[in-house]
Amino acid sequence: MLRFLLNVLWFVLGGVVMGLGWWLAGLVAAITIVGLPWARACFVIGNYSFWPFGNEAVSRRELTGRMDFGTGPLGLIGNVIWFLVAGWWLAIGHLTSAVACFVTIIGIPFGIQHIKLALIALAPVGMQVVPMRR
To answer: Where is the Inner membrane component domain (predicted)?
Structure first.
């Protein structure tokens, strides 16, 4: 129940804006055709950005114990390109939102989530959103 309430508050108080930002980046990436690998990551992280509480983003390498297309050398190149094109813009959006949340005591959990999302925004390729382990 607490996760649900936190997610609803998050969504209403700004999560929708950053989630839409991720989806916009994904749409632009998809339109370019060469950006399709980044588009998928944008939509996955965008959904996570809408409802972050109760989920976490982890590297697929940590999750599966093996390298794949997104966690190997090509994933690194993809993340460098992503950072230069769009990653830092989304990270700045999350950091700005985090500062606004940290101003209030009740917003601290939201600020922490924005910091996590800002770090993901810098290198989303090779990440997977999974339910949080207890």
So the answer is: 5-55, 77-126
Query: How far is 39 from 86, CA to CA, in rounded Å?
Result: 11
Asked whether the CA dihedral 46, 20, 39, 25 is positive or negative, the reply is negative
Query: What single DSSP character describes residue 134?
Result: -
Q: What would the two tokens of residue 98 be?
A: 């985090």
55 CB burial (10 A radius; 0-12, 13-18, 19+): middle
d(CA 88, CA 76): 16
Residue 43 to residue 12: CA distance in whole angstroms: 19
Dump pLDDT digits (tens) for 6-15: 899 899 888 8
pTM metric for this prediction: 0.86
Structure tokens belonging to residue 39: 């588009």
Q: How far apart are CA 60 and CA 111, in angstroms?
A: 25
